[in-house]
Write a structure and sequence with these properties.
Helix content of chain B: over 70%
Largest sheet of chain B: 2 strands, antiparallel
Oligomer: heterodimer
Structural class of chain B: mainly alpha
Order of helices and strands of chain A: HHHH
Number of domains of chain A: 1
Shape of chain A: elongated
Number of helices of chain B: 5
Chain lengths: 133, 206
């Protein structure tokens, strides 16, 4: 599977498109949970969306890992700082849920959703930078 | 201020040497702004911990207004202007504006969302029995769509343009392409911010 590229440019997997799909899935999971909290919420749909998002993210990283000669040095140079920033952002959102006594399965799903979110964005930023290196 | 050279697009066609364009020295993440971000985040933590109406309303309204206005201004005013600037002017403008955006946008978005959720909990508008709950969920959906566009397209393009401009020999075609992506996605989020204005004014009047 390759994204459309201008003539002369090397073909790469559709990392941006898949990253946006993964982000969308995890955000829908977060919106579903947030729309019901603090009341009881069935976790099934959120777990399914989170699982799908994590699978797309893993597939995205695997597809990228198979690209020969990809600028991994540049990717990690950018992605590690982006990861730090987005982990901080995720921690702030987690703090709000903890402050409001979110607990149990809902907290686990929200925490994992925030983790997938915090990993997805650095992959997108790192890829966009490194593809032109 | 130090300057470096960028070759203009198409300058090397026909074997002619590429024309060098001046580009100011800059930091991708302006370190001078980091203490300001730290103070804002400390205020956010304090505001949520205190859980009083005024600090939460203040943080949510100020950061939310900044987010909305920046998106609208960038998408519909600055974006079209940048598209019409000459390449040297666009490079100079980009190296001065976009590093600031790297700090400002994630900060205002985080403050808006975290303070907004706490405010919603404080006011009870996040309860399904609340008559305004549907509007709150609508705001989640609009923010979700904006987040996918901003985090998937806009933010990576912003960082990639700045990284490209930091290279000894930046590629003008890459900069052009990424800037287009940045401006179009800023326009899309700007359009969605109109929906945010409708929802938030409805929530404000109850």
């Amino acid at each position: 599977m390759s994204a459309s590229s201008p003539p002369g440019e090397r073909r790469l997997p559709p990392v941006t498109q898949l990253g946006m799909l993964s982000l969308a899935l995890v955000l829908v999971a977060g919106i579903y949970l947030s729309a019901h909290l603090p009341e009881h919420v069935s976790l099934g749909p959120a777990v399914a969306l989170l699982g799908a998002s994590a699978l797309v993210l893993a597939g995205n990283v695997l597809a990228l890992a198979r690209v020969p000669g990809f600028a991994w040095g540049r990717f990690f140079e950018i992605a590690r700082w982006a990861l730090l920033a987005y982990l901080l952002i995720a921690a702030m959102i987690e703090y709000v849920f903890l402050r409001n006594h979110t607990s149990g399965g809902a907290l686990v799903v929200l925490t994992l959703s925030l983790l997938v979110f915090a990993v997805n964005v650095p992959v997108l930023i790192g890829f966009t930078v490194a593809r032109y290196d | 201020m130090a300057h470096a050279a960028v070759s203009s697009p198409g300058a090397a066609i026909g074997g002619a040497p590429p024309a060098a364009l001046e580009r100011p020295d800059f930091q991708i993440v302006p370190r001078a702004g980091l203490p300001i971000v730290a103070v804002v985040l400390a205020l956010l933590i304090a505001g949520i911990a205190v859980n009083e109406l005024w600090p939460l309303e203040f943080l949510h309204v100020v950061a939310g207004a900044a987010w909305t206005i920046i998106d609208l201004f960038l998408g519909f005013v600055l974006g079209p202007i940048m598209g019409k600037l000459s390449v040297p002017a666009r490079i100079e403008f980009t190296t001065r504006l976009m590093p600031k955006m790297v700090l400002i946008m994630p900060t205002v978005v985080t403050v808006t969302l975290a303070a907004g959720w706490q405010l919603s909990t404080h006011l009870g508008t996040n309860l399904t029995v609340n008559p305004l709950h549907g509007w709150v969920v609508a705001s989640f959906i609009v923010v979700g769509v904006m987040a996918v566009i901003a985090l998937g397209l806009l933010e990576p393009a912003n960082i990639a343009v700045l990284t490209e401009l930091k290279k000894p020999q930046p590629n003008p075609a890459v900069i052009e392409r990424l800037m287009k992506r940045f401006i179009y996605s800023a326009g899309a989020t700007g359009a969605l911010q109109v929906a945010t204005l409708v929802i938030m004014t409805k929530l404000a009047i109850g």
